Amino acid sequence: MAVDGTRRLDLTGADGQALEVSLLCSDGREVRMEGVENASDVSKVHRRTFHDTWKQNGKVIGDLRGVVSEDGRILKIAVAATDQQNRPIHNNVTFPKQ
Protein backbone atom coordinates (compact mmCIF):
# COMPACT_ATOMS: atom_id res chain seq x y z
CA MET A 1 0.00 0.00 0.00
CA ALA A 2 1.30 3.44 -0.88
CA VAL A 3 1.66 6.22 1.68
CA ASP A 4 -1.50 7.92 0.33
CA GLY A 5 -3.55 4.72 0.97
CA THR A 6 -3.57 3.58 -2.67
CA ARG A 7 -3.35 -0.15 -3.29
CA ARG A 8 -1.98 -1.35 -6.60
CA LEU A 9 -2.97 -4.85 -7.67
CA ASP A 10 -1.70 -6.95 -10.57
CA LEU A 11 -4.58 -9.31 -11.40
CA THR A 12 -5.64 -11.69 -14.14
CA GLY A 13 -9.13 -11.16 -15.54
CA ALA A 14 -11.63 -13.91 -16.32
CA ASP A 15 -10.51 -13.69 -19.95
CA GLY A 16 -6.88 -14.38 -18.94
CA GLN A 17 -5.74 -10.82 -19.64
CA ALA A 18 -3.55 -8.95 -17.18
CA LEU A 19 -5.25 -6.15 -15.20
CA GLU A 20 -3.48 -3.39 -13.32
CA VAL A 21 -5.91 -2.02 -10.74
CA SER A 22 -5.49 0.92 -8.37
CA LEU A 23 -7.88 1.73 -5.56
CA LEU A 24 -7.92 3.79 -2.40
CA CYS A 25 -8.68 2.55 1.09
CA SER A 26 -12.02 4.32 1.26
CA ASP A 27 -13.10 3.81 4.89
CA GLY A 28 -16.62 2.83 3.86
CA ARG A 29 -17.08 5.36 1.03
CA GLU A 30 -17.56 4.23 -2.56
CA VAL A 31 -14.57 5.26 -4.69
CA ARG A 32 -13.64 4.72 -8.32
CA MET A 33 -11.34 1.83 -9.22
CA GLU A 34 -8.66 2.60 -11.79
CA GLY A 35 -8.03 -0.12 -14.37
CA VAL A 36 -11.54 -1.62 -14.52
CA GLU A 37 -14.18 0.13 -16.64
CA ASN A 38 -17.13 1.61 -14.68
CA ALA A 39 -15.92 0.01 -11.44
CA SER A 40 -15.90 1.16 -7.84
CA ASP A 41 -14.84 -0.14 -4.44
CA VAL A 42 -16.00 0.24 -0.88
CA SER A 43 -13.30 -0.79 1.57
CA LYS A 44 -13.30 -1.05 5.33
CA VAL A 45 -10.10 -1.68 7.26
CA HIS A 46 -10.09 -2.55 10.95
CA ARG A 47 -6.84 -3.44 12.67
CA ARG A 48 -5.59 -6.55 10.86
CA THR A 49 -8.68 -7.17 8.70
CA PHE A 50 -10.22 -5.63 5.62
CA HIS A 51 -13.43 -6.02 3.63
CA ASP A 52 -13.72 -4.80 0.03
CA THR A 53 -16.87 -4.75 -2.08
CA TRP A 54 -16.13 -4.30 -5.78
CA LYS A 55 -18.86 -3.08 -8.13
CA GLN A 56 -19.06 -2.68 -11.89
CA ASN A 57 -21.91 -0.73 -13.47
CA GLY A 58 -23.54 -0.64 -10.02
CA LYS A 59 -23.58 -4.45 -9.62
CA VAL A 60 -21.47 -6.24 -6.99
CA ILE A 61 -18.80 -8.28 -8.79
CA GLY A 62 -16.54 -9.15 -5.87
CA ASP A 63 -16.51 -9.49 -2.11
CA LEU A 64 -13.03 -9.76 -0.62
CA ARG A 65 -12.23 -10.34 3.04
CA GLY A 66 -8.67 -10.43 4.29
CA VAL A 67 -6.75 -10.83 7.51
CA VAL A 68 -3.09 -10.30 8.35
CA SER A 69 -1.58 -12.72 10.87
CA GLU A 70 -0.68 -11.36 14.31
CA ASP A 71 3.04 -11.47 13.45
CA GLY A 72 2.35 -9.60 10.16
CA ARG A 73 3.94 -12.32 8.05
CA ILE A 74 0.88 -13.83 6.30
CA LEU A 75 -2.07 -12.27 4.46
CA LYS A 76 -5.09 -14.50 3.80
CA ILE A 77 -7.87 -13.37 1.48
CA ALA A 78 -11.23 -15.02 0.77
CA VAL A 79 -12.74 -13.98 -2.57
CA ALA A 80 -16.36 -14.37 -3.65
CA ALA A 81 -16.96 -13.00 -7.14
CA THR A 82 -18.69 -13.59 -10.47
CA ASP A 83 -17.11 -14.13 -13.87
CA GLN A 84 -18.20 -12.59 -17.17
CA GLN A 85 -20.90 -15.26 -17.60
CA ASN A 86 -22.24 -14.41 -14.11
CA ARG A 87 -20.99 -17.72 -12.66
CA PRO A 88 -19.83 -17.68 -9.03
CA ILE A 89 -16.12 -17.77 -8.20
CA HIS A 90 -14.83 -18.64 -4.72
CA ASN A 91 -11.15 -18.58 -3.93
CA ASN A 92 -8.92 -18.47 -0.88
CA VAL A 93 -5.40 -17.13 -1.32
CA THR A 94 -2.49 -16.88 1.09
CA PHE A 95 0.44 -14.49 0.68
CA PRO A 96 3.51 -15.00 2.87
CA LYS A 97 5.68 -11.92 3.48
CA GLN A 98 8.65 -11.95 1.12
At a glance:
The chain is mainly beta and about 100 residues long. It is built from no helices and 8 strands.
Give structural notes:
The protein is an all-beta fold and 98 residues long. It has one domain. Helix content is 0%, strand content 62%. It is built from no helices and eight strands. The strands form two sheets. A six-stranded antiparallel sheet has the order 3-4-5-6-7-8, with no helix packed on it. It has a two-stranded antiparallel ribbon with strand order 1-2. A hairpin with a 5-residue loop joins strand 1 and strand 2. It is globular and about 40 Å long. The model has no long low-confidence stretch (mean pLDDT 87).
Layout: helices, strands, pairs:
Blueprint: E1 6-12, E2 18-24, E3 30-32, E4 39-46, E5 49-56, E6 59-68, E7 74-82, E8 88-96
Antiparallel strand pairs: 1-2, 3-4, 4-5, 5-6, 6-7, 7-8
